[in-house]
Specification:
The structure holds 2 protein chains of 2 kinds. Chain A contains 21 helices and no strands. Chain A is mainly alpha-helical. Classes of the chains: A mainly alpha, B mainly alpha.
Chain lengths: ~400, ~290
Amino acid sequence: MKIVFSIPLTLAAVALLFLATPRVAQAQADCLSCHADTTMQDSAGHNVGVDAHKFGASIHGVLKCGECHTNIKDYPHPDQVTPVKCDTCHADEAAGLVGSVHASRAEHPCTSCHGDAHAIFPKSDPQSAVYPLNVPRTCGACHGNDAMAKKHGLPNVYPMYIDSIHGFALSKEGLLVAANCQSCHGSHHILSHTDPASPTYKVNVPQTCGSCHAGITADYEQGVHGKAVAAGKLDAPVCSDCHTSHSIEQPTAAAFRMQSTPICGNCHKEKFSTYRDTFHSQLGSLGGYVETARCWDCHGAHEILPASDPRSPVAPQNLVKTCGRCHAGANASFVKYQPHANARNRKLNPALYYITLFMNLLLVSVLTFFLIHTLLWLIRSRYDQVKAKAAKGGKDA
Amino acid sequence: MPDLERVSDGNGEAAGTKTRFFMRFTREQRYLHAVLFTTFLGLAATGLPMRFSQSIFARKFASAVGGFGAIIFFHKLFALVLTIAFLIHLKEIFTRGVLHREKGIFWGSTSMVANWKDVKDLVGHLRWMVGLGPKPQFERYAYWEKFDYWAVFWGMLVIGFSGYAMWFAPFFARFLPGWALNAVLVVHSEEGLLAILFIFSIHFVNTHLRPDSFPMDMVVFTGVESEEEFKHKRTQEYERLAKAGKLEARVGTAPAQWQVNFSKVVGFTAIAIGLTLLVLTLTAYFI
């Protein structure tokens, strides 16, 4: 209805303009005389209206319509417009997309991230869909969708991220420096974490995190884990193996401390098992006392060094200081305590082995003897009782 | 002392018969038992979650009472009370046995110290259970009662020492070798576990739940027992006193009804808590 109604007016305007100006690419005003109506639809029902004000303010506001809609030169124009080719100008970005996880243009047109084609703003503009504070929501449109995640075999990362320390810093504190999706994954050339060129490929993770956490990465590279990874031992953990990649928590927070020791225990099974035998673990499991020594309280977290290294907090000469952080009055004999003593290992911990053996034998023998003793006694007493009552006349027997 | 020979309706075996009650435990001994089982239940309830900290019940219990901080606070509090009770008991033995040179504390038929008769009684009792001989006649303290006493006594020393060694580890480390700091936790928890399993199964049955005493032996709460019970359970002591003409001196007052009721409530509560903890301990190995 509206199109029909506005045609005579438009024709008149176009005719006037054509008389006055040379016939170059369509000027905005020409097109907007029709398309400024934001409810305008084509015959297929697509919205073909343009918010003239928003478009004018957008980064492409200075361009003429025909510079993107290249097959439209005249009026009346063909019903079918050719798809807009952003790569005409944005060749680098287009090249980046090639080979990336979002390479399919049909599934991931530019607008899927950059939003309304007529309202694209530079990424430094808070209105932009790719402004740092808006990135998680933009990516989350797909990556916060269970069905989509399932279809592609991906975790539904948006809720994990948004509750993480990064997501909190970004969405609650509004920190531009907080890591958003593209800080780690890149933007156009996003690669699977299985691709060695990806910033999220295991070996590259320390550098990726280090682009913000430079000091931590420097420490990490000095530690045993960093050195092992650098030497190509991919069993060793990188940042994300301990901190996770999306659900990263404040490591000093009670919640993280409570769940943290099994993370190290994933690889250090023997050490974790012996830690579990100790009071540190017993009281640490019960909550309400998160200060209890966890792995890194003694070993350090990033610059983990073997006890043979004099800089290590678990080097013999540093133990009084390390243990003393919690145990006021720790002295040279106190630190002879073995936080990983193995009561099952006769060679390593003979005293503990035999004491444990003795205690177990004592427990089993005392209980076994008295269990038999008591059971026999019970049966015999009951037998006598029934007999005595039967003799009295059989009542209550 | 005819005024002491009152008729008891509450515990009377047969209506119309005058039942005499005999003193077995002094007021102090009954209080000691009360403090002992109260703190023991508390120590068990707070100790077990630490021993089985990975189990579901431990975590649920811990989070309900305020986490480890609350658990260790009450564990130490009960430990202190029990330590004081133990020291008072030691002082009592010292005063009676050493200062006053009271007879029958360290040896003789009324002593807690084991003697040859206990060995014979144990063998004889086992033979009787399987039908190979007559039932032995017991003295004031039967061999299993002496075992109960010394098990607690040894437990007090072992669990107490290892517990304080952990509480004041830097101090104890001055004169203990390094491995001892590891060993004290093993000793403390294993001995504690033994005590819990023993008391909540063996002691409960031997003393309270066996047919002769079922459902509860009230003597440790009221201090007195009926003549029939005395005669039946501790025949030798009864006969020895009767022969020496000292039976009358031991006659006590029948317990008041409120005393019996109160004892029942306390006793059954303790037994219920104990049995609950026993079940939790046994299941903690699996869940």
